Structure formats: structure tokens, C-alpha cells
TrEMBL record:
InterPro entries: Acyl_CoA_acyltransferase (IPR016181), GNAT_dom (IPR000182). It comes from Saccharothrix mutabilis subsp. mutabilis. Gene3D superfamilies: 3.40.630.30. Residues 1-150 form the N-acetyltransferase domain. This is GNAT family N-acetyltransferase. It holds the Pfam family Acetyltransf_3. PANTHER family: ACETYLTRANSFERASE-RELATED, N-ACETYLTRANSFERASE DOMAIN-CONTAINING PROTEIN. It comes from the Bacteria.
Length: 150
């Protein structure tokens, strides 16, 4: 991952439809300075594993493993222009081969059917539910908690 990749990620996350679907996003996705500070912190943290997702030579997203609520969790973002092409599934499949951390958790809004389908294809199973305030929707949103075991 490069600094240039991060600048592309910023452009991706400006999409209001993608923010709504992801739900749990930055309070102000247009705040470039805050976005760059967040990514500088991510890239400087050796406990976070993060990779750029590319397709046809273009940066189309990212995938990361980090710790949340004391558990290892995976997250990913694919530019909406590339949704429906299987890129999230392919990226997560490759990432899971590189990062063997298990159990591994993921979270997705209950109505984010695309992300839930990706996680299911990669072997994650629902183990719980939660509700939290989602900046991308300006309201509390229900989410599934999923886990991938060994």
C-alpha cells in the first residue's frame, strides 16, 4: 500500500451511496485532513495488516485486519464502480490465505446483502447482532457480527 493508494481511497469513500451501504463510516467523509490522519495512524500501526485491492491495474479498494472490541476483525472497501464483479470475494479470499488469524470477526449492516454474501462465501458465520450509531446513515443501525474459525 502506498500514499497514492490512500488518496484513491479518499476519492472512493466520497460516494454517498457507498457510505450509506457501509453505514459505519467517518462522520464527515469530505474531511480530507481527518481521513489522511486516520490512514497515517493505520499505516504506522504494526498490529494492523492492510492491503490495496487492484483490478486491471487500478486501485479499487482496500482490506485490513485490525483489533476492535479486543478481537481481530477484518474490513474491506471496494469502489462502488466495481461492485458486483466478485472483487470483494476474491480480495477477501486472498487476504485470508495471507493472514491466518483465527478466529477472525467481521461486521456488516443487516441490510448490506452484498457484504454479507461476500463474508458467507469466505466461510464467515453469523454469531451475534449489535446496534450502533452509523454516521453513514445518521441513525442507529443493526449489524451482524460474523466469525471465521480455523
Amino acid at each position: 500500500m502506498t500514499e497514492a493508494d490512500v488518496l484513491v481511497f479518499f476519492e472512493h469513500q466520497l460516494d454517498p451511496d457507498a457510505n450509506r451501504m457501509a453505514a459505519f463510516v467517518a462522520a464527515d467523509p469530505t474531511d480530507r485532513a481527518a481521513f489522511l490522519v486516520k490512514w497515517a495512524r493505520i499505516l504506522a500501526d504494526d498490529s494492523i495488516v492492510t492491503k490495496t485491492v487492484e483490478f486491471d491495474g487500478r486501485v479499487v479498494g482496500h482490506i485490513s485486519r485490525f483489533t476492535q472490541f479486543g478481537e481481530p476483525e477484518v474490513t474491506y472497501w471496494i469502489d462502488r464502480e466495481y461492485w458486483g464483479l466478485g472483487l470483494a470475494t476474491a480480495a477477501l479470499t486472498q487476504f485470508l490465505k495471507l493472514d491466518r488469524t483465527r478466529p477472525l470477526y467481521a461486521r456488516a449492516a443487516v441490510d448490506n446483502l452484498g457484504s454479507l454474501r461476500v463474508l458467507d462465501k469466505c466461510g464467515f458465520v453469523a454469531v451475534g447482532e449489535d446496534v450502533g450509531y452509523a454516521e453513514g446513515r445518521g441513525e442507529d443501525v443493526e449489524e451482524f457480527i460474523l466469525r471465521l474459525d480455523a
